[in-house]
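Marked as duplicate of an earlier ticket. Keeping the data here for the record.
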Amino acid sequence: METEAEIPELDGDACYRAVVTRDARFDGRFFTAVKTTGIYCRPVCPARTPLRRNVDFHPSAASAEAAGFRACLRCRPETAPDMGAWRGTSNTVTRALGLIEAGALDEADVDTLAGRLGVGDRQLRRLFRRHLGAAPVSVAQTRRVLLAKSLIHDTDLTMAEVALASGFGSVRRFNETFQTLYDRPPSELRRRGPRHDAGPGVRLRLPWRPPYDWAAMIRALSDRGDQVAEGRWMRGLDTVIDGTSGEILVSPRPDEALDVLVIADDLSALPRVLARVRRVFDLSADPAAIAADLSHDPLLSPLVEGRPGLRLPGEWIQPDDAFPSDSVPDDLPPALLRRAEAWRPWRAYGLAHLAAAGLRLTDIPETDHEKAA
């Protein structure tokens, strides 16, 4: 049985100021739990601001749900950009979240997940409590519930199809979970009106945290050989690799998000496919955190300021032990490798900025400190 999760310490007064001003910079960085209503919201929720004494703050949606709060139907926490704004603080948790997002706990247990990560199950639980305020199984359930809410709100899939596509093992489990969380069946959450999924497949909106350099991303994907046409990225789905046949098409939306169309024969593969889309397009990146760390280097500071939305194109298939934001090539010049130690955990972003600026890695000078060392 999972032990009760501890809530990582947040600056409550700073969080409340962000709620009062509906500061979009904090959207996805924390969630506001309103004790008088039992609901948790995004900082940008348009509802009337609750009193300070009536709210607590949680670092993740899973933490809020584990504490007994249910997602707001008005601001829809499942649509917040970058649900993992803390990423980079723990390699193990980052890798675990990627696996959970792809469905690692839908059919296996925490012990199996910990084994894939090379850590003990107790250590993994401890890391999740420290960084997310929730146990791994709670994070997995929240992922399923929030994906299901997106499908209920934004598509015309039947409830049975929603249950399958969001990773629930059965319609009964799906119905029971929503009845427990929202005190109503999932069908009552559906809002009638125009959908944006006309035609075949499932169409969803995947948000990013601005800024985002789409032109640079689509150019990088095209240069490495991905299928790109008229500014739209496409990929065929393979039964062996993806668990289904079909195709996926991705294009930018005007509201700081990707428009993702998945045409799949087996809807149970949807969580895995969406997780890979998020990885390919680096949707979990936190530009503010990356810029704050890299800007300490006088060489990188103007480059980051000039291109704050630069992202790393990810791989469709990624090894369990990979940590892309900190990866560097094996043949990196020793002088630059020493300098890049100060860029952790964003070394790959630092190198991307150098490449975008046309600077040759062999020409990067050592700092006085590095020379002395």
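See parent ticket for discussion. The chain has a mean pLDDT of 88.
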